[in-house]
Amino acid sequence: MIHIPPNLTIDPAEIEFTFSRSPGPGGQNVNKVETKAQLRFDIGASQSLTDTQKRKLRRALSTRITKDDVLLISCWRHRTQGANRDGAIERFRELLTDALRPVKKRRKTQPSRRAKERRLAEKRKRSDVKRMRRSRPGDDA
After folding, report:
1. Residue 110: inside a domain
2. Is 22 helix (H, G, I), strand (E, B) or coil?
3. For residue 61, is it within any domain?
């Protein structure tokens, strides 16, 4: 089981991997061995997620989800297929954790009286500076 904090677990059977040749490190090995791992997770077909969680994922990860409602994650950072597979799972875990984190509601605040006074005083000061720079009729300097 793949554990997603705080209390979600994803069945590994819901995740599918495909492997291909990697553009990453590997030297001569890179041209012969399929080390790039691509994780595929069908959000719509998932039994582990509630409808609310599915909606949140679709909204938060919209750029990574295909038209078929499949989340794609690729990893080719490592030289071995197993390490790239683990890297893709770790990235999957991070993405789901971030996407399902509850959104903090913004509390309305007001500026303090002192802050308002300071802002208005600064505006008056700036206005005075600009007024002093203006040329007056009759000043032919």
Report:
1. no
2. coil
3. yes
| CA-angle at 67, arms to 33 and 98, nearest 5° | 75
Residue 122 dihedral angles phi and psi, to the nearest 5°: -65, -40
Please give the full DSSP string across 28-64, using - where no structure is assigned. Answer: GGGGTS--EEEEEEETTT-SSS-HHHHHHHHHHTGGG
Full-model pTM: 0.61
Give the model confidence (pLDDT) of 61-104 as tens digits: 888 888 888 888 888 777 777 888 888 888 888 888 888 888 88
- Structural domain span for residue 41: 2-100
CATH number, position 95: 3.30.160.20
Q: Are 57 and 96 in contact (CB under 8 A)?
A: yes
Q: How many domains does the chain have?
A: 1
The amino acid that residue 8 corresponds to is: L
